[in-house]
Amino acid sequence: MLTISHYTKTYPGGKTAVDDLSLHVPAGEICGFIGHNGAGKTTTLRAVSGVMSFTQGTITIDSHDIRADPVAAKAVTAFLPDNPDLYEFMSGIEYLNLIADLYDITAWEREERIRLYSGSFQLTQDLGSAIASYSHGMKQKLAIISALIRKPKLLVLDEPFVGLDPAAAHLLKGYLRELCNEGGAVFFSTHVLEVAEKLCDTIAIIKNGRLVRHGPTQEVVGDSSLEDVFLGLAENGGAQ
Fold it and tell me: N or C terminus: which one in the chain shows less Cβ crowding within 10 Å?
């Protein structure tokens, strides 16, 4: 579903944020992308979603090259950044209908999906209110719903559990697995290592812009814990 090949991002001035990163996330898989602040996670996620240019390499989503065929790649991708920009002058339902319009979701499909997800996340009664009146957690739920109603083949998430209450976090985990069971894939970053260890099929750990570990979660963790593995890589410089 997602293939990143020799991806490199160098900023003006010569700073290399991500250096020669390659990994593959097949359909049906949840891949957790782990690293310290500044390791290159968000830079990579933004490149995958098509909102940031990059220096070298290729990124393909469902066989669509993000640079050669960006419209097709973005059409099957939903990206949720760590601090989603929402049109706060709109009501929640106006925003969801805007997203549905942009992705050509039919009237009956959007009605069914909005009813399902807003009900699950207990946001239905607030959809008529201005987004500006929402709490941080409510805004996060609305952004998640806007991604889920697209039924993307690839869901890219940057710290999706921040701001969610335990019930909403539990729901989101279930919906991520459901998306994968239906043939999609999930690529997300998180600092909540316990969630990543329990939820993810594979783990990719990035350090100082370079991929230092990638594989099935059980192989990466072994007889330890993801937290121990992560801290160990930090202490020994990221050796495999």
Answer: C
The span from the CA of 113 to the CA of 119, in Å, is 10
- In 3D space, the residue among 152, 149, 233, 225 whose CA is nearest the CA of residue 193 turns out to be 225
> Tokens 């097949």 appear where?
26
For the four alpha carbons of 231, 190, 184 and 223, in that order, the dihedral sign comes to: positive
d(CA 41, CA 57): 16
Strand pairing partners for 169?
none
Q: Could you tell me if 120 and 149 are in contact, meaning their C-beta atoms sit under 8 angstroms apart?
A: no
Task: For residue 104, give the DSSP letter.
Answer: T
Note the pLDDT tens digit of each residue in 13-54. 888 999 999 999 999 999 999 999 889 999 999 999 999 999
